[in-house]
Amino acid sequence: MQYREDKNGEKLSILGYGCMRFTKKGNSIDIDKAEKEIMEAYNQGVNYYDTAYIYSGSEAALGEIVEKNNIRDKIKIATKLPQYLIGNGKGLDKYFNEELSRLKTDYVDYYLMHHLTDVAMWEKLKAVGILEWIEKKKKEGSIRNIGFSYHGNSENFITILEDYNWDFCQIQYNYMDEVTQAGVIGLKAAAKKGIPVVIMEPLRGGKLVNMLPEKAKKLIDNNERGWSAAEWAFRWLYNQPEVTVVLSGMNSIEMVKENCRVASDSGEGNLNESDLKLLEEIKRLIKEKEKVGCTGCRYCMPCPKGVDIPGIFACYNTMYIENKNSGRFQFAQTVGLTKEPAFATQCIECGKCETHCPQNIPIREKLKEADKALRPLPFKIGIGIARKYMLRKAKKEK
């Protein structure tokens, strides 16, 4: 494993473990499986583990695993203040103490203001006393480093970056988001101030692996490097010295081993001019096909009317990245035939989803487009008949 330093000279593994996507067993996290994966990563040298208050069951699972294996003082835990739930100063301690309890610890190594999208959110936190609160927690030692995770444009990112003496920050960044969100402008601005940058969505919600156009897949398969699509994406990030840690939501032993191998064999200067040209061509092919720039982060969820927004967009994109039948078949399986209906037509256009979307997608408009493409009349009738059959069968089996 390779390491890069934070502001205090602490060594952080360039691969970080994103704990949002632990495998579920029923409605709960499969703790035994998660433990095997966490400990495999730990034994391979991963020392940065990222979770958040709103990642259902994640903090508690991580806390249980870390305590059971007695590795708290050997790793760095990052979690996040749900700033969108804060109404007044009392909420700061309320949520933080709950997180400490879940994590079974008395300190957090890296604490983030979660999901800032503009300056107004940071100003709201300042108004309820966040600056004094941070100072107090750092003096107590219950917070070692303070940062923020960000989804928004580069201008607002830089304003927030300049407004406080941050210890680190976290941005969405990959070869498709080089000029969106904080982007390369934000990355370099943070690096110029000596602020470590943690990367989320390195594979853009899996899209840079699972939803590549066929032409892009062939380019990768035929390249003499022999690297997988995921490896190309990770190496592109590790090639940049401004990147400190790259998070990956690993949920299999195979994925952990592969990502650790790449992190041990990558670094600044690992890509040549020919490699970078290949990635530029892959970007061109993706943009040629894509219909909605959804990463599947699910910040738009839950929809008050039950619409599966990211699920619908994933199917819509599959129609054009792969083929129409693939997208419609995927829709039938993942959206159309679920027990609780999740169709775009259930949308009441309240707009709540759009206020939380990191990609600033006009969700209401795109849902109408997607529904029209995914459910032409024959498919709509077919799904309707299949749903009635399934519901009748379910009632009989009760």
TrEMBL record:
<dbReference type="InterPro" id="IPR017896">
    <property type="entry name" value="4Fe4S_Fe-S-bd"/>
</dbReference>
<keyword id="KW-0408">Iron</keyword>
<dbReference type="InterPro" id="IPR023210">
    <property type="entry name" value="NADP_OxRdtase_dom"/>
</dbReference>
<protein>
    <recommendedName>
        <fullName>4Fe-4S ferredoxin-type domain-containing protein</fullName>
    </recommendedName>
</protein>
<feature type="domain" description="4Fe-4S ferredoxin-type">
    <location>
        <begin position="339"/>
        <end position="367"/>
    </location>
</feature>
<dbReference type="InterPro" id="IPR020471">
    <property type="entry name" value="AKR"/>
</dbReference>
<dbReference type="Pfam" id="PF13187">
    <property type="entry name" value="Fer4_9"/>
</dbReference>
<dbReference type="InterPro" id="IPR017900">
    <property type="entry name" value="4Fe4S_Fe_S_CS"/>
</dbReference>
<dbReference type="GO" id="GO:0051536">
    <property type="term" value="F:iron-sulfur cluster binding"/>
</dbReference>
<keyword id="KW-0411">Iron-sulfur</keyword>
<dbReference type="Pfam" id="PF00248">
    <property type="entry name" value="Aldo_ket_red"/>
</dbReference>
<dbReference type="InterPro" id="IPR053135">
    <property type="entry name" value="AKR2_Oxidoreductase"/>
</dbReference>
<dbReference type="GO" id="GO:0016491">
    <property type="term" value="F:oxidoreductase activity"/>
</dbReference>
<dbReference type="GO" id="GO:0046872">
    <property type="term" value="F:metal ion binding"/>
</dbReference>
<keyword id="KW-0479">Metal-binding</keyword>
<dbReference type="InterPro" id="IPR036812">
    <property type="entry name" value="NAD(P)_OxRdtase_dom_sf"/>
</dbReference>
